Amino acid sequence: MTANRRVCVIGAGPCGMSFLYHNNQLKVAGKECADVVCYEKQSNWGGLWNYTWRTGTDEQGNVCHGSMYRDLWSNGPKECLELHDYTFDDHFGKAIPSFPPRAVLFDYLQGRWNKSNLRNYITFNTNVQRVTYNKETDDFTVMTKDLSNDKDLPPERFSHVIVATGHFSVPKVPSFEGIDKFPGRILHSHDFRRANEFKGQRILIVGSSYSAEDIAMQCRKMGSDNVIISYRRKPTNYHWHNGIEERPPLTRVDGSTIHFNDGTTADVDAIILCTGYLYNFPYLPDSLRLKTALELYPAGLYKGTVWMGDGNNKLLYLGMYGQYYSYTMFNIQAEWASAVVSGHKQLPTREDMESDIRIWRRKQEQLDGRFDEIAFQSDFGCDLAKEVGCTYDIDVRTLFNKWENDKRKNIWTYRDHAYTSVHTGKSGIKHHTPWSRAYDDSVDTFVNQTPNKY
Ligand code: FAD
Ligand code: NAP
């Protein structure tokens, strides 16, 4: 039963797919749901999880969306992103270790999407070029292009638009004095695909967040000579050893010599800028466009979702926060959004929405460090869960805290630990090979292994 709502979902990554999933759940339950069309510019679903070897441009000549690298393993335990109605045990039919490689997580996501036949809702190879809000008719016009045939398609009208195009795709690329004369390779983490090419090299990593720490470890794992991580504002403060060290901000580059602001220098062969990403919505006009730096609770979004600018509360964004919680947060946010869009949940007055945003953003200002941030995002997820009357446990802050502590104890071995699922009560098994020595990341080797061999 459709509720006279025609919804355009932009992007078939984990966020867009979560919306399709929940709208379909309403349909299956015989409840009012929306008529949904999802446009995806790539030829497959999965967003960043749809791994590509390409860098620069994709096969259509457009900017390549992918930022994942070939040998990426989850940097958080799977028990922190496990979906209550589709657990890892459900998918694989057995217990697996807690830190799966990229392909294993993609396999898991696709299992849930396939079960609901969600592919039927997606128009692939179709880029959303422009979205405009029509004040007179209180709806949106969406312009798209069929990328396979290089053909503009006729404009379509929608009552709601869901923006689910991610925000870890357009690299933020700073410059440094003298870097233009650096003789070696310079790249951003967006274009990093394998560490093997840096074997035997001395590497400078700029940045101190997740890409910096993980790519530094990847490079050492694959045989780089040594790695220096140069932070800007905050060091990672992990106990680096085994060929990785941390230094303060770099001040200038002189040939292959890097100068740091504590007066030290180092000679390196390659520079990898792990300096984060820009929010980029080229298909949205100013009045509909979210403009923010990476935050847990960006300004201008009620419940982190409903755009408070133009669009009469009918433009919704998914997944636009910094992500401790990922799949489970996308899931609960999409459940909330589909309840709003289908008319099962009414929005409060504009004044109340603005006041709610202010409360969350004031809390955000007071956060001090990662444990605080985890607690904040846990509370945000619980708030959404309460709003949709959810009965399962979404709060996994104790697992996230254990994860942070494991990393602080030993950054090299944190992926070798096992965590317990809040949904099944069962623990992940120990991986057969410590992460630092595990080179085969295929689904088969990871899933069909013999546990506790070391
Ligand atoms: P995306 O996955 O980016 O998907 C957006 C989709 O929108 C893409 O398919 C894209 O093609 C499409 N699109 C964009 N523009 C248009 C347009 N104009 N028209 C049509 N379609 C369009 N999270 C974890 O939970 N665990 C991890 O281990 C993990 N590792 C990560 C590693 C890296 C290097 C990065 C960058 C992120 C990682 N993440 C991880 C976080 C990641 O952000 C989420 O897991 C997830 O992919 C976000 O989903 P999304 O749907 O918001 O965006
Ligand atoms: P990020 O978290 O936004 O971090 C960007 C980093 O760049 C920060 O340390 C920032 O420093 C630094 N920076 C920005 N501008 C700079 C400048 N001008 N000079 C020097 N440093 C600068 O981005 P990210 O690390 O790429 O992470 C993005 C997402 O990818 C996260 O969700 C993460 O979980 C995910 N990821 C996951 C994995 C994995 O699962 N294995 C691996 C990699 C990434 P300041 O602190 O000073 O701002």
Describe the protein:
With 454 residues, the chain is an alpha/beta fold. The protein has two domains: 6-169 and 277-399, FAD/NAD(P)-binding domain (3-Layer(bba) Sandwich); 174-273, FAD/NAD(P)-binding domain, CATH 3.50.50. The chain is built from nine helices and 21 strands. Strands 3-2-1-8-21 form a five-stranded parallel beta sheet. A hairpin with a 3-residue loop joins strand 19 (301-302) and strand 20. Helix 1 crosses helix 5 and helix 5 runs parallel beside helix 7. The longest helix is centred in the last third of the chain and has 18 residues, at 370-387. The chain is globular, with a radius of gyration of 22 Å. The mean pLDDT is 96. The structure holds flavin-adenine dinucleotide and NADP nicotinamide-adenine-dinucleotide phosphate. The site of flavin-adenine dinucleotide has 34 residues, from helix 1 and strand 4.
**Mean pLDDT reading:** 96
Show unreliable segments: none
Described by its quaternary structure, the protein is: single chain
Report the sheet-strand fraction: 15-25%
Using the coordinates shown, work out and report the CATH topology of the largest domain. FAD/NAD(P)-binding domain
Strand count, sense and barrel status of the largest sheet are: 5 strands, parallel
Under CATH at level 1, the class of the largest domain stands as: Alpha Beta
Structural class, from secondary structure content?
Answer: alpha/beta
CATH superfamily of the largest domain: FAD/NAD(P)-binding domain
Q: Helical percent range?
A: 10-25%
> What is the β-strand count?
21
How many structural domains in the coordinates?
A: 2
Radius of gyration: 22 Å
Strand order of the largest sheet: 3-2-1-8-21
Tell me which ligands are bound. Answer: flavin-adenine dinucleotide, NADP nicotinamide-adenine-dinucleotide phosphate
Outline? globular
Order of helices and strands: EHEHHEEEEEEEEEHEEEEEEEEEEHHHHH
How far apart lie the N and C ends?
55 Å
Tally the helices: what do you get? 9
